[in-house]
Amino acid sequence: MNRPALVTRFGRRHVLSSFVSLYPSWILPGLLCFSEQVRAGAQVEEPLMDSVRTALSSAVANAAPPVPEFTNTDARMVYLRWLGAISERLKKKKPDWMVRKEFLQTVWYEARRAGLEVSLVLGVIQVESNFRKFAVSSAGARGYMQVMPFWTRVLGDGDASKLFHLQTNLRFGCVILRHYLDRERGDLFLALGRYNGSRGQAPYPKAVLGAQRQWQFSP
């Protein structure tokens, strides 16, 4: 039997670790409810083979900080040019430079780690939460990439409050989208629909792909 794609992609060197829980339960009722953009659907909990569950759990459980690494100076310069250009585009959403830098660095790291286009992940974030860290949908999806709480039970320790942590949310979101893309044999239209819980319907994939164009960058 072939190993799941995520095991090959992420490797088995990632070990289980706990993420810091920053937001106690009494904060949750006051968090922003971002229903208009995300009410159309939500990720559906589906049975997972043990091998797939193990691969996904391993993929989300790496505690390494999202610090970009470069093989040469040219690669580093491409990243810095990307950071400067995309930072300008994001300024209205996140005015503070340090907040913006941390956010974009984490998006870049997690997207590339999962083998996804960074512009695609930014498109998903725009459609799902409009770059709001504490967005909560009517279905209960949380954070930047609107991850459903059941994923923390399936792949982690069940503490859904951790989905408001920047790297945790992006890690889950990117790994889940990669999983759906592999499951749909590379069909991005179907993978995005599955991510939204509206597989086969056009509005959500069209919205994400439209948003993605705003975040594309040519070095």
Structure characterization notes:
The chain has a single domain (5-14, 45-215), classed as Lysozyme (Orthogonal Bundle), CATH 1.10.530. Helices cover 51% and strands 0% of the residues. α5 packs parallel to α8 (166-183). The longest helix has 18 residues, at 73-90. Mean pLDDT is 83; it is low at 1-40. By secondary structure, it is mostly helical.
Topology:
Blueprint: H1 5-10, H2 35-38, H3 50-60, H4 73-90, H5 97-113, H6 118-129, H7 150-155, H8 166-183, H9 188-196, H10 203-212
Helix pairs in contact: 4-5, 5-8, 6-10, 8-9, 9-10
Task: Name the descriptors.
Lysozyme, disordered N terminus, single chain, 219 residues, mainly alpha, 10 helices
Mean pLDDT: 83
In N-to-C order, the SSE pattern is HHHHHHHHHH
Largest β sheet strand count, sense and barrel closure: none
CATH topology: Lysozyme
